Amino acid sequence: MNKRKLIVGNWKMNGSLAANESLVRELLAGIGQPRCEVAVCPPGIYLAQLQALLAGSPIELGVQNVSTHEVGAFTGDVSAEMLKDFGVRYAIVGHSERRQHQAESDVHVAIKAKRALAAGITPIVCVGETLREREEGMTDFIVKRQLAAVIHLNGHCSSEIVVAYEPVWAIGTGQTATPEQAQQVHAVLRAQLKGVTEHADRVRILYGGSMNAANAAELLAQPDIDGGLIGGASLKAADFLKIVGAAA
Ligand code: PEP
Question: One Pfam family of this protein, by short name (predicted)?
Answer without folding.
Answer: TIM
